[in-house]
Amino acid sequence: MAPLLNISISSNLQFFPAFILILILILFPCPSAATTSEAEALLKWKNSLHNPTNHSLLPSWNLLPSYNSTSSSTNSSHSSCCQWIGIVCNEFGSVTEINLTSSNLKGTLQYFNFSSFPNLLSFVLNGNSLYGSIPSQISNLTRLTHLDLGWNQLSGNIPFEIGMLVCLEVFWAHNNNLSEEVGELHSLMVLYLYDNNLSGTIPSSIGNLSKLSYLALQENKISGSIPKEVGQLSSLMVLYLYGNYLSGSIPSSIGNLSKLSNLALSTNNITGSIPKEVGQLHSLMVLYLYDNNLSGTIPSSIGNLSKLSNLALSTNNITGSIPKEVGQLSSLKELYLHKTISVVQSLH
Ligand SMILES: *[C@@H]1O[C@H](CO)[C@@H](O)[C@H](O)[C@H]1NC(C)=O
Ligand SMILES: *[C@@H]1O[C@H](CO)[C@@H](O)[C@H](O)[C@H]1NC(C)=O
Ligand SMILES: *[C@@H]1O[C@H](CO)[C@@H](O)[C@H](O)[C@H]1NC(C)=O
Ligand SMILES: *[C@@H]1O[C@H](CO)[C@@H](O)[C@H](O)[C@H]1NC(C)=O
Ligand SMILES: *[C@@H]1O[C@H](CO)[C@@H](O)[C@H](O)[C@H]1NC(C)=O
Ligand SMILES: *[C@@H]1O[C@H](CO)[C@@H](O)[C@H](O)[C@H]1NC(C)=O
Ligand SMILES: *[C@@H]1O[C@H](CO)[C@@H](O)[C@H](O)[C@H]1NC(C)=O
Ligand SMILES: *[C@@H]1O[C@H](CO)[C@@H](O)[C@H](O)[C@H]1NC(C)=O
Ligand SMILES: *[C@@H]1O[C@H](CO)[C@@H](O)[C@H](O)[C@H]1NC(C)=O
Ligand SMILES: *[C@@H]1O[C@H](CO)[C@@H](O)[C@H](O)[C@H]1NC(C)=O
Ligand SMILES: *[C@@H]1O[C@H](CO)[C@@H](O)[C@H](O)[C@H]1NC(C)=O
Ligand SMILES: *[C@@H]1O[C@H](CO)[C@@H](O)[C@H](O)[C@H]1NC(C)=O
């Protein structure tokens, strides 16, 4: 089975001297030229979309001279896209943000010229009807930190070139129809790929994403076991892997995730017992392990989880009694243990 993600971190860019970057910006501010080609690239893409005149935002997207104005307004004001709805520019007039959330866009990214946006930081296309694949040229958005392609109909593989986006911090592509996922993702803090068609396994290199706070891969077709390297994700607060085909046991290294507040591994085929290290997750509020093949007893260390409010272990093969320590869980609001074959009810 091919790995789901293929992650490596190259260190050669890490120490890129800031002064060289500043020097480049001083020497090549290149405002008008950049802006014109950005505007042209946006128009070209707009024209590739279905029914472009009917989009809720895109009417402002045009370069026609303003015939109203008899005045001295320069061409540059007409050749700039900085006033267009959904577009934000920097002080040099180059596009830094494109936000076309829920704009009724139907079409593909095939004619989007990624090379034209060297300064783009945020690209948000959430909630449209974009279909087709994510072009590998997306790697040309070299400064991108925020990419949101959620709630579209994108399909095919996530191109491994996304891994070349070394500044990427947030990547949302949930609720699409994406399949095999391959990428080398650096700097990432948020990875939302839930509700897709992702298959393959979670690679051990996931442990390299040391800045990751939110990992949401639920409702896919991911198989294999949870790599023990997940325990290296020391910033992790949310880990959602529910609704996949995961097997194997829960790695004890999970006890290292001291910031973890939500852990949901439910509706998989996870076996083995609940590691006692779960009791080290002092920030944990939600623990959903229901609908798996877990066996053994409930570790008494669960009584240490003073912040736990939701605990669901139902539909497993857990034996023994409910440890009396569960009665210490002062924050507990929801407790589901039904169908955990032969748990003796002795809750205090
Ligand atoms: C815009 O959409 C409406 C209804 O969907 C349609 O009647 C109209 O012809 C469309 N206009 C253009 C210019 O495509
Ligand atoms: C041009 O004139 C029309 C009608 O007079 C007006 O609705 C429109 O807002 C004007 N456009 C600009 C850019 O001033
Ligand atoms: C302004 O635009 C017109 C028509 O597109 C063009 O002929 C002219 O050369 C432009 N002027 C400048 C200063 O770019
Ligand atoms: C994008 O625009 C929508 C609606 O205008 C807004 O709610 C959202 O916060 C914006 N997202 C970003 C990342 O700027
Ligand atoms: C894409 O944009 C770049 C930079 O503006 C330009 O050099 C290139 O010709 C464009 N490619 C296409 C296919 O338009
Ligand atoms: C754009 O991305 C493609 C695919 O990754 C790559 O082959 C090409 O060299 C890139 N172009 C530029 C100008 O970076
Ligand atoms: C999802 O993608 C697969 C192939 O990648 C395709 O066969 C299927 O029709 C797509 N489903 C939808 C709902 O678009
Ligand atoms: C996933 O892909 C299968 C076929 O490859 C397709 O039948 C199914 O509709 C896809 N799921 C979604 C959510 O599009
Ligand atoms: C990334 O993870 C893999 C597998 O765990 C490891 O072999 C590799 O050395 C890691 N790379 C870096 C740069 O940490
Ligand atoms: C993570 O957990 C494992 C197993 O519990 C342990 O051996 C390892 O030392 C821990 N690593 C860190 C960085 O805490
Ligand atoms: C779950 O795992 C068990 C043991 O590894 C295996 O026998 C069984 O077929 C799996 N069930 C599913 C639905 O994958
Ligand atoms: C539950 O676990 C016991 C051993 O602890 C095993 O004998 C039994 O087959 C398991 N039942 C199911 C339904 O997996």
TrEMBL record:
One GO MF term attached to the UniProt entry: protein serine/threonine kinase activity
Domain Leucine-rich repeat-containing N-terminal plant-type: 37-90
E.C. no: 2.7.11.1
Main location: membrane
BP GO terms, sorted: detection of stimulus
Signal peptide (UniProt feature, chain positions): 1-34
Signal among keywords: yes
Membrane association type: Single-pass type I membrane protein
Cellular compartments per GO CC: plasma membrane
Keywords per UniProt: ATP-binding, Cell membrane, Cell wall, Glycoprotein, Leucine-rich repeat, Membrane, Nucleotide-binding, Phosphoprotein, Receptor, Repeat, Secreted, Signal, Transferase, Transmembrane, Transmembrane helix
Compartments, record wording: Cell membrane; Secreted, Cell wall
Classification via InterPro entries: Leu-rich_rpt, Leu-rich_rpt_typical-subtyp, LRR_dom_sf, LRR_N_plant-typ, LRRC69/RLP
Reaction catalyzed: L-seryl-[protein] + ATP = O-phospho-L-seryl-[protein] + ADP + H(+); L-threonyl-[protein] + ATP = O-phospho-L-threonyl-[protein] + ADP + H(+)
Family: Belongs to the polygalacturonase-inhibiting protein family.
Protein name: non-specific serine/threonine protein kinase
Protein species of origin: Rhamnella rubrinervis
